[in-house]
Design a protein that fits this description.
Shape of chain B: globular
Strand content of chain A: over 45%
Number of strands of chain A: 11
Structural class of chain A: mainly beta
Largest sheet of chain B: 6 strands, mixed
Radius of gyration of chain A: 13 Å
Strand content of chain B: over 45%
Order of helices and strands of chain A: EEEEEEEEEEE
Structural class of chain B: mainly beta
Helix content of chain B: under 10%
Oligomer: heterodimer
Number of helices of chain B: 0
Shape of chain A: globular
């Protein structure tokens, strides 16, 4: 159980274009999902917390107008990288938990490798 | 600032040996602790979770937690080449949402 699906797994786009990444919880409902970014040889950095039916909460230093998050249902959150630039090239991973309590581990999607040319 | 620290490695162990991975954290209010395994180019996979002091065993894996020392470890017995990966220590803080801080990971190499 607790399967998180992410799509696409890999995307290449041109500088200045926008890219949408989808994250779905397949066998549970997730009122909260988390978006992480991981640069090569670095750890996962939380970008934002996606809340169903309300605005996302962004971590310090993450531009909310550049990384648009929509959590329209209990099983789907989307991250749109707007006006992408080469420095946005990274591994983006979403995560969610079937439970909201602090003792519930996160389950990760398979990640999206974004390359901006 | 909440920090989770790990030795980046690589930690090399021969096949069949015990691999010991260590992690320290700075936030005394941390409540939940997790170990994830991440293969190159893949997303993290949950290996173990531990919430109270002491040891927790699951198959070849044993997680150890010492909140007084702010220390958590993962032991892998009978290490296999397939265990070669980066192991991420993750700490969840007190207060509601499951906001987790990850360490930078320890790269484990199991030598056949």
């Amino acid at each position: 159980g607790a399967v998180v699906s992410q799509h696409p797994s890999r995307v290449i786009c041109k500088s200045g274009t926008s890219v949408k990444i989808e994250c779905r919880s397949l066998d549970f409902q997730a009122t909260t999902m988390f978006w992480y970014r991981q640069f090569p040889k670095q750890s996962l950095m939380l970008m934002a917390t996606s809340n169903e039916g309300s605005k996302a909460t962004y971590e310090q230093g993450v531009e909310k107008d550049k990384f648009l998050i929509n959590h329209a249902s209990l099983t789907l959150s989307t991250l749109t990288v707007t006006s992408a630039h080469p420095e946005d090239s990274s591994f983006y991973i979403c995560s969610a938990s079937p439970y909201t309590g602090g003792n519930s581990p996160l389950h990760f999607g398979n990640g999206t490798r974004l390359t901006v040319t | 600032q909440k920090e989770v620290e790990q030795n980046s490695g690589p930690l090399s162990v021969p096949e069949g040996a015990i691999a010991s991975l260590n992690c320290t954290y700075s936030d005394r209010g941390s409540q939940s602790f997790f170990w994830y395994r991440q293969y190159s180019g893949k997303s993290p996979e949950l290996i173990m979770s531990i919430y109270s002091n002491g040891d927790k065993e699951d198959g070849r894996f044993t997680a150890q937690l010492n909140k007084a020392s702010q220390y958590v470890s993962l032991l892998i017995r009978d290490s296999q080449p397939s265990d070669s990966a980066t192991y991420l220590c993750a700490v969840a803080h007190s207060g509601g949402y499951q906001k987790v801080t990850f360490g930078t990971g320890t790269k484990l190499q199991v030598i056949p």
